[in-house]
Structure formats: structure tokens, C-alpha cells
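This is your field. Have a critical look at the following sequence-structure pair:

***
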Amino acid sequence: MKAAEILEALGQIEAAARVLEAAGRLPKWKKECIAKYSECQDEKWVGNCHDCLRRCQGQQKWPDDMCYDPRKRN
């Protein structure tokens, strides 16, 4: 899969998640995964945001040891 296809797919997933979230149908852990992923991408966190999103979806918890805001680490 090419990078552009991955980004398009993620955009579609995010759009669908927003619709479900608006309807109150997403579980709390998934909302947190999506929020952390958005922060990771927007704020250029350390780590691969895509891999961390996938891990979060599997573990239902954001992998703080893999993807994090370097400004909040000492």
C-alpha cells in the first residue's frame, strides 16, 4: 500500500470515527486512541503515530513508551 493510500484510508477512518463519536457510539478507549493519534500527528511526537494507533486499537491503551510528546518528557 502506498503512503497516499494509507493517508486516504486513515482520513476515511477518522471521518467515520467522528460520525460515530457524534452519535455516541465509540467506546471511550477508542476515542482516546483517536485523540492521541491526532495529537501525535499534529504535534510531531516521537515515534511512528500510525504504529501507535494500531497498537492502541489492539491493546485499548495508547503506548506512551512508543509515541510521546518530547516536551513532556525529561
